[in-house]
Amino acid sequence: MGTTPARGYVYPDSSSDTQIWAHFETLADGIDADVDMIVARPIVRLIQQSAQSYSSSSAAALTFGSGSEDADSHNFHDTVTNNSRVTPTRAGWYTCRVTGSFGTPGSAFTQIAVAPAKNGTRVDGQVISRPDAASTAGAGAQCTALIYCNGTTDYVEGYVQQNSSGSQNTSTTATLRSTFEVLFERP
Predict the structure, then answer these.
(1) Which end of the chain has less Cβ packing within 10 Å, N or C?
(2) DSSP 76-133
């Protein structure tokens, strides 16, 4: 038995009618799964509901607990176990967008950095925002990356870091919240 090079669909190498039919059904199931994935692409949108404290100059993954799942079409996220992670169960390329937002600090921010991460390692292309040093208003930054996940063990997270004169909490106000979005693009 062999497989097609591009998609990995199984095809028979025997001439038995019974085996050919069984292999045809396997091929059809694989194609059906791909069509389903295109029609109903996996999407995860998490909105942070509880403030998270960040020490100055220390990066950490955003956490998304109870009530944070705005969308999770394929159950890639768990609000209890490893609640910073999105673990796709379908191999492919995913657009990952992280927004890190902080509420009004006691002193001005000098920098907010955000980046998606794969398996705990931030990917290249983090975004650094340098809010007006005189401002003490809430501030945020957003970064998007295209990340390949193997569909079994790979996971993605949204990392955030803030630099100021001390620890700051992420914002949970309706107009300024930290979010993490993951959208399946293609196998």
Answers:
(1) N
(2) -B-SSTTTT-B--SS-EEEEEEEEEEE---SS--SEEEEEEEETTEEPS--EEE---T
56 phi and psi, to 5 degrees? -60, 135
Q: Which of 53, 42, 48 is nearest to 96 (CA)?
A: 42
Torsion of Cα atoms, 141 then 147 then 151 then 157, to 10° = -20
DSSP bridge pairs for 140:
101
Domain that holds residue 33: 2-39
User: CA Rg, the chain, in Å?
Assistant: 21
The pLDDT tens digits for 32-75 are: 777 766 678 899 999 999 999 999 999 999 999 999 999 999 99
- Of how many residues is the chain composed? 187
CATH number at residue 153: 2.60.120.40
